[in-house]
Design brief:
By secondary structure, this protein is an alpha+beta fold. Helix content is about 35%, strand content about 15%.
Length: about 130
């Protein structure tokens, strides 16, 4: 639930150039995800991973530095909210031109949304975006 609420908030923020979350209707694979990603009751469940793209590496780094609740981590998927900057972390060894072809820009960030209070997470993200 937290990820869907946050994805909708980030989708409306003009500092976010692009958002990747299959729960959003504008995601190119939304209908497929809706059929494939189901909770135990058979309802669509889109998971806790969101990727956002900011305009450049400086803004991405500043955004991450200003977060207070999200923890910088290479391995995502815990119960706590985490953030990863693939260009400088998990994919740093890949040449930039190859990364860009794969869609891994310098401004790309991956967010693993945890179980903290969603309003606290939204506030943290908005405050950090407002500082870039």
């Amino acid at each position: 639930k937290n990820a869907m609420i946050i994805a909708k908030e980030l989708n409306e923020n003009n500092k976010v150039n692009k958002i990747y979350y299959p729960g959003l209707q504008n995601h190119p694979q939304h209908n497929l995800a809706k059929k494939q990603q189901l909770d135990p009751d058979g309802k669509s469940a889109f998971g806790g991973m969101i990727s956002i793209e900011l305009s450049n590496i400086e803004k991405a780094r500043k955004f991450v530095k200003n977060l207070k609740l999200f923890i910088l981590a290479e391995s995502l998927g815990g119960v706590e909210s985490l953030v990863c900057h693939p260009a400088s972390m998990t994919h740093a060894s890949i040449p930039k031109n190859v990364r860009v072809k794969l869609g891994i820009t310098d401004g790309l960030l991956r967010l693993s949304i945890g179980i903290e209070d969603v309003n606290d997470l939204i506030s943290d993200l908005k405050e950090s975006l407002n500082k870039i």
